[in-house]
Structures are given as structure tokens and as C-alpha cells.
Design a protein that fits this description.
There is one protein chain. Helices cover 29% and strands 24% of the residues. The protein is α/β, with parallel strands linked by helices and 464 residues long. It has two domains: 303 residues, 3-Layer(aba) Sandwich (Aminopeptidase); 134 residues, Aminopeptidase i, Domain 2. The strands form five sheets. Strands 1-2-3-13-4-14-20-16-18 form a nine-stranded mixed sheet, sandwiched between helices. Strands 8-7-10-5-6-9 form a six-stranded antiparallel sheet. The protein has a three-stranded antiparallel sheet with strand order 11-12-22. The protein starts with 11 loop residues before the first helix and ends with a helix.
Length: 464
């Protein structure tokens, strides 16, 4: 089924809006290389737009009415937006759900050591990565260090032009005959992803002088001791800013497109919504998707349901479990997550008729999972038809796709978790090349069509 290249549709005015949106997005991912940094930006944006914290609503026992705007910051790792609609909550919400965690390398709890006058941080990779892609490139260190008394220090080193960067070494080609003969998954072992952080010894110290010199620098800059690293969350990410790609600047290379290229437009679509919607709107930016949506901040926990229950209580002045269940089961959701972009260099793993193509607009995945749709959410035909109608009526360029050939691979999103409440869910994101690499690639046209899609969905999705 032919899909026109979205670039062919834009006049000069829309090109200007597309370009401005892409610049805003680049600024967001440059400043948000961790979940905490994304949430921090989201909270600031919500407060500028006049949203009130859900904690304030609860503490002051406020009642919510149509048109009210509320946000929730959950553990500094998850972020939710609500705009109360005119219709009863039991008729459901229009929900956009994306994740703000990305594959990376985490620092272990007892990380700092010295070996042959080089100081290292020991690490543990997070999510699905090709480990060999993370060696021999500039890396930055982001996160937070929390002391026993509860005070904390934010860390962001490697992004400013004046900052140092960090580095994981690779074996030189001259000695790599055995390494080059290994399967790709074994070329670099997980325990070899050790981050180089220093090499100058502390004068007068005989035992581990380089390690002690690094600790001295950490204490001088952040006021922390070695044991404070036990309660730190430090993430190693590629250093540097997102960049335009191509003579025509039509593409963006950046870290964390999966899934911030969906989370940012999801957030913006709700923040930019004008007036009072018919149905209550919700955007969910969640953590831990890359490792199975686990933990207190993963979509598999109850934080989303608990927050929505508080919204229900604040609207009606009392809580009803049955009412909340009706609200959730009647909701409509786009699980905003990316698709594997068709790459002509690796065409053999795709079935081209059902692959996501760059520049063809937002992409809907009716199902994900593996093989025979194992672990999948499989959206029903009625819901897919409603989505088609919304896209066509709002002139949104869209396509459908699967994640590669049937028996080649697969993957999942948060869609199946939300579907357990009975709501209609379909995956909606854009094509990404080099997904889960330190630097991924997306099309600005797809980003723009995705934003248009999310805005149209919030406005026009309706209960069956």
C-alpha cells in the first residue's frame, strides 16, 4: 500500500513550524539524557502552562472541574499530565503513554577502583545494547548522589564544552585477531565496560593514589565521600548534543530517540491543547520500559492507577473502585513508542511491505511481541478503524508496520500493560534507524507528523 513521502506536502509556513518544533525537541533531549532530567523539564513546562501539582490538590482537598489542569511527579522518574474534560470520567480518557528511559550504562554501587595507575568506575549496562558500540567514544556522566542525611547533589559532567569527558577503551586492531573472531555479543564483555575517570596520583599517597585523587576531586566539587556512591544513581551516556544530519538537514542524530522522540510530542500535545476537552486528557511519561516496565516507577506498578484514582476522587469528591474501573476500561490510548525504521543496508531482516519507512509519517503497530505475537498487545479492528478516521480527517501522514520479519526478532512496549485494564491501545510512534545505538536517527518530518497525530487523537478520539 503506497504512502506518500510527507515532505512533499509542506508549504513554507508548515516547514517553519516543523523546523521550530524539531529545534524544541533537540533542546529537550540535549537537556534530558536521564529520566530525572526529563521529568525536571516536564515539571517546569507544566508549571509555566499553569498546571497544578496533584500533591497540592490532595493536600488542599481541592475539587477538580472541567478545564482544570493537573500534573504529577512520581519519584522524579515518572510524569503525568491531566486535563479534566466535560464528559463523565466513566466515559474514559484519551491517553498518550511513552517512556523516558533509554539504553545506557549504569555505574555500580561500589564502583571506584584503580588498576595500573588508571582510575575506573565499574558499570552495569541497562537495557538492550550492542556493547561494542559503547567503547572508544566520548561519554558523559549524569545523575544524582544522595547522602545519608537525604541531601543530594546533581551530577552532569561531559556536556559543556569546558567539561572533561569519560571513556571506555577498546583493544587496538593490531592485537585484536582473537577478538575480531568472536561473535558480536562477545566482542566486548559486560564486565569490560569500565569507565576511565582519571590517571593523576595524589601526591604523598602510596596506596591507590589515583583513586584517592579522584575522591578528593569529588569531595571538593560535590562534598561527597566514597560511601555516598552507595546511594547514587549515575548514568553513562554519549557526550554531545543532537545534530542535524544530511545536506538538507532533514534528519536528527541524537541519544535517546527511543523513546523521547515520542515522549516529548506526547507531553507537548497535552500542554498545547487549548480550551476544555470533551474527554479528560492524560499524558504518561514512564520509566523502566527498557528493562520490562518493572519496579515502583515502571508501568507495571500501580502509580498510574493510583494517580488516576486521586483524579477521580478530586472530581467527584469521593472514590469509587467500580467508577475507576469503568473509567480505565473506557479509555483510549496511544502507546507512544518507536518502530524499527527500514534500513536498506540491512534489508534482509525486514518485510518491506510492512516496515516503517523514514519520511512516511507516524507509524502504527497493531501488535508487537515476538514470533506468533507472544507478549503482544493486538489492537482490535474497530479501534484501528477509528484511528484511521482521525488521521485522515486531520491530514496526518501515517503508515503501519511490524518489527522486522516474523521469525527474526521482536520487541514490546507498555501497550500490553495498559490493555489489561480493558482499554483500547495501539502503538503509535515513528521510524528510528540504529535503534538502541548511542546515536540514533529520525526524520524531522516523522517527528512533526507524530505531533500532529497526538494532537488529533486527543481532540477526536471518542468512546465506542
Amino acid at each position: 500500500m503506497y504512502r506518500k513521502n510527507a515532505w512533499e506536502n509542506y508549504d513554507e509556513q508548515e516547514m517553519q513550524r516543523l523546523t521550530a518544533f524539531a529545534e524544541d525537541y533537540k533542546a529537550f533531549i540535549d537537556a534530558g539524557k536521564t529520566e530525572r532530567e526529563c521529568v525536571e523539564q516536564a515539571v517546569a513546562a507544566a508549571e509555566r502552562a499553569g498546571y497544578v501539582s496533584l500533591e497540592t490538590v490532595i493536600r488542599e482537598n481541592r475539587r477538580l472541574k472541567a478545564g482544570d489542569r493537573v500534573y504529577q511527579n512520581w519519584m522524579n522518574k515518572d510524569f503525568l499530565l491531566y486535563v479534566i474534560g466535560e464528559k463523565p470520567l466513566e466515559e474514559g480518557m484519551n491517553i498518550l503513554g511513552a517512556h523516558i528511559d533509554s539504553p545506557r550504562i549504569d555505574v555500580k554501587q561500589n564502583p571506584l577502583y584503580e588498576d595500573e595507575s588508571i582510575a575506573y568506575l565499574d558499570t552495569h549496562y541497562y537495557g538492550g545494547i550492542k556493547k561494542y558500540q559503547w567503547v572508544a567514544l566520548p561519554l558523559a556522566l549524569h545523575g544524582v548522589i544522595v547522602r545519608k542525611d537525604g541531601t543530594s547533589e546533581r551530577v552532569s559532567i561531559g556536556e559543556d564544552a569546558a567539561d572533561p569527558v569519560f571513556y571506555i577503551s577498546d583493544l587496538l586492531i593490531h592485537l585484536a585477531q582473537d577478538q575480531m573472531a568472536k561473535p558480536a555479543r562477545e566482542v566486548v564483555e559486560g564486565e569490560a565496560l569500565n569507565l576511565i575517570v582519571g590517571s593523576v596520583p595524589l601526591k604523598g599517597e602510596e596506596k591507590e593514589p589515583v583513586k584517592k585523587a579522584v575522591l578528593k576531586l569529588l569531595n571538593e566539587k560535590y562534598g561527597v565521600e566514597e560511601e555516598d556512591l552507595l546511594s547514587a544513581e549515575l548514568e553513562i551516556v554519549p557526550a554531545g548534543k543532537a545534530r542535524d544530519v544530511g545536506f538538507d538537514r532533514s534528519l536528527i542524530a541524537g541519544y535517546g530517540h527511543d523513546d523521547r522522540v515520542c515522549s516529548y510530542p506526547s507531553m507537548r500535545a497535552v500542554l498545547d491543547y487549548e480550551g476544555t476537552p470533551a474527554y479528560t486528557l492524560c499524558a504518561v511519561l514512564t520509566d523502566k520500559e527498557e528493562i520490562g516496565s518493572v519496579g515502583a516507577t515502571g508501568m507495571g506498578s500501580e502509580y498510574f492507577v493510583n494517580g488516576t484514582a486521586e483524579i477521580y476522587n478530586a472530581v467527584y469528591g469521593s472514590y469509587s473502585e467500580l467508577g475507576l474501573k469503568r473509567m480505565l476500561r473506557s479509555s483510549r490510548m496511544l502507546s507512544s513508542d518507536v518502530s524499527a525504521g527500514f534500513d536498506p543496508n540491512f534489508a534482509g531482516v525486514f518485510e518491506k511491505k510492512n516496515a516503517a519507512l523514514l519520511g512516511r509519517g507516524v507509524c502504527f503497530n497493531k501488535f508487537t511481541g515476538r514470533g506468533g505475537k507472544s507478549g503482544s498487545n493486538d489492537a482490535n479492528a474497530e479501534y484501528v478503524a477509528q484511528i484511521r478516521r482521525i488521521m485522515d480527517e486531520n491530514n496526518v501522514d501515517f503508515q503501519t508496520a511490524e518489527l522486522g520479519k516474523v521469525d527474526v526478532g521482536g520487541g514490546g512496549t507498555i501497550a500490553y500493560i495498559c490493555a489489561k485494564y480493558g482499554m483500547n491501545v495501539i502503538d503509535a510512534g515513528i521510524a528510528v534507524l540504529s535503534m538502541h545505538a548511542p546515536w540514533e536517527l529520525v526524520s524531522k518530518a516523522d517527528l512533526w507528523e507524530e505531533y500532529k497525530c497526538y494532537c488529533a487523537f486527543l481532540k477526536d478520539a471518542r468512546a465506542f
